[in-house]
Specification:
This protein has a domain of 34 residues. It is 62% helix and 0% strand. It is built from two helices and no strands. It starts with a helix and ends in an 18-residue tail after the last helix. The chain is flat. Helix 1 crosses helix 2. With 56 residues, the protein is mainly alpha-helical. The mean pLDDT is 81. InterPro entries: DUF6203 (IPR045777).
């Protein structure tokens, strides 16, 4: 359902020039973030969490 709503919103935004520019900007930023996350390295190791794990 969430993915469906995202698609509807993206289609609506793509119909306007400003919306299309915002979608392109968001796409570029997400692409850049994913590229940095996939690169292994000592600095990219996640810090230990102090929270206890929750059991579902």
């Amino acid at each position: 359902m969430k993915r469906f709503l995202k698609v509807l919103l993206a289609r609506r935004m793509a119909a306007t020039p400003i919306g299309a520019a915002l979608l392109a900007l968001g796409w570029l930023l997400n692409r850049r973030r994913r590229k940095h996350q996939s690169r292994p390295g000592p600095a990219s190791r996640p810090a230990r969490s102090r929270r206890r794990p929750t059991h579902h």
